[in-house]
Specification:
Helix content is about 10%, strand content about 35%. With about 425 residues, it is mainly β. The strands form seven sheets. Strands 10, 12, 13, 14, 16, 17 and 18 form a seven-stranded mixed beta sheet that branches. A five-stranded antiparallel beta sheet has the order 9-8-7-11-15, with no helix packed on it. It starts with 12 loop residues before the first strand and ends with a strand.
Length: about 425
């Protein structure tokens, strides 16, 4: 607020006070809030009245313009009733509170392009939208590269007389992958956003209390994991433009986001709520532990995985096949020993969660064994079994088969297991 008492050098005293709503504000000499001005504040004759003070809202208004501040000049220094000059001026204020109550990243479980993909924490625990609920949960999301997604946000605004706000968000994370959120006008009813329609197929939240907001850009074209933070900025309230470019009303943080190359391939799937939806624990293993961060070329990523898994010691007995049709990728992520089936299907599962269509196969009478497992990617072969003298990286299929000296009745079949 700007203060002026003219002409200068007046003999009386000047007082600033809050005549209503004073408990909702604090007043400061500087925008960094280093020097508070306790109200009421009086400046006697000869003292300098500051030209600018900064008002901080500390509690939301119960109604519009329910805070009144008065600047009073009294020419009688003692304040007694007298014929000497008295004058005053008033302003009314509203402390607005805007909160982001919830964010849904994967609001449409049938799409992997317009929003996040279906995701789980691990085999046992699923993730459902809204992934972020203030004070309750903040769960991860994952996106396919180059997509241009939207998110659903639920806003809470006080006082609830406000009908519309315009809001945007600036990325507060230099390494964030989602970036800024485009500015949009939000319609409010009783202080809650109300743009959408409820989708009866989603039982966890009512979309009618949410608003669609677009990511202001494109998901990067490489594998990564980031932690998103946003500063939410209001630019307009009920048609009134907000002075200043950075009226930050809220910050949401620690939104874990993964970026993969394409929709996950089998054995992973995108059936809503299925245990074969990609797991965060598996993405952490494949992206962080296997060092595929920044990868964008399929062959280079497969090579990195082969080199990682070739370091696992060989054991002729499978450590991860726990039933005829079940492969424990949970066990594989921690295993220190593996046979050729473990290595091949572990590689298949790791590449497939990133969207690479690798296929583990079993070949009878091959490489001098009764059977041997390896991976195919198009017309190329990858083999990370430690029983071999060296890892096989990108060999042509025909060359690899000749190298393996298959027996006259050698048969090749695809490996397909449920993972847990």
């Amino acid at each position: 607020i700007r203060l002026r008492v003219l002409p200068p050098g007046l003999p009386g005293k000047t007082t600033l006070l809050a005549t209503s709503g004073g408990s909702r504000i604090r007043v400061w000499l500087d925008p960094s809030r280093n020097d508070e001005v306790a109200l009421p504040k009086t400046w006697n004759a000869g003292e300098t009245v500051p030209s600018i003070l900064y008002v901080e809202g500390i509690a939301p208004s119960a109604a519009m313009r329910d805070i009144k501040m008065t600047l009073l000049y009294d020419e009688n220094p003692d304040g007694q009733s007298s014929p000497l000059l008295k004058c005053e001026d008033h302003i009314v204020l509203t402390v607005v509170n805007v909160r982001i109550e919830a964010i849904a990243f994967n609001y449409d479980t049938s799409s992997a392009i317009t929003d996040a993909i279906n995701l789980r924490e691990n085999y046992q625990c699923g993730i459902s939208a809204p992934e972020f609920i203030r004070g309750i949960k903040n769960m991860a999301s994952a996106y396919v590269r180059y997509s241009r997604p939207s998110i659903l946000c639920k806003f809470f605004v006080q006082p609830n007389e406000i009908n519309t706000i315009r809001i945007k968000a600036k990325s507060a994370d230099f390494n964030g992958v989602l970036g800024d959120i485009a500015e949009k006008s939000i319609v409010l009813v009783d202080g809650v956003s109300c743009e959408g329609e409820d989708n009866p197929s989603t039982t966890d939240f009512d979309e009618s209390q949410y608003a669609f907001l677009s990511i202001d850009g494109t998901i990067p074209g490489k594998i990564c994991k980031s932690e998103e933070s946003w500063d939410w900025i209001v630019t307009e309230i009920d048609g009134l433009l907000i002075e200043g470019a950075n009226f930050v009303v809220d910050r949401t943080t620690n939104h874990q986001v993964y970026v993969i190359l394409d929709t996950p391939k089998a054995p992973w799937n995108q059936i809503s709520g299925d245990t074969q939806n990609p797991w965060c624990s598996a993405l952490d293993f494949v992206i962080i532990e296997c060092d595929t961060v920044g990868g964008s070329v399929y062959s280079s990523i497969i090579e990195a995985l082969v080199e990682k898994f070739y370091s696992i010691s060989y054991n002729s007995i499978s450590q991860c096949l726990i039933a005829d049709s079940v492969f424990s990728f949970s066990e594989f992520m921690d295993t220190i020993e593996a046979n050729c089936l473990d290595s091949a299907y572990g590689l298949d599962t790791a590449a497939s969660i990133l969207g690479i269509d690798l296929q583990a196969v079993m070949r009878t009478s091959f490489l001098g064994y009764n059977l041997h497992c390896f991976d195919k990617f198009g017309s190329y072969v990858y083999d990370c079994c430690r029983a071999l003298r060296y890892a096989i990286i990108g060999w042509r299929y025909d060359d690899y088969i000749n190298y393996g000296h298959p027996g006259p009745v050698s048969v090749e079949s695809e490996l397909n297991y449920v993972i847990e």
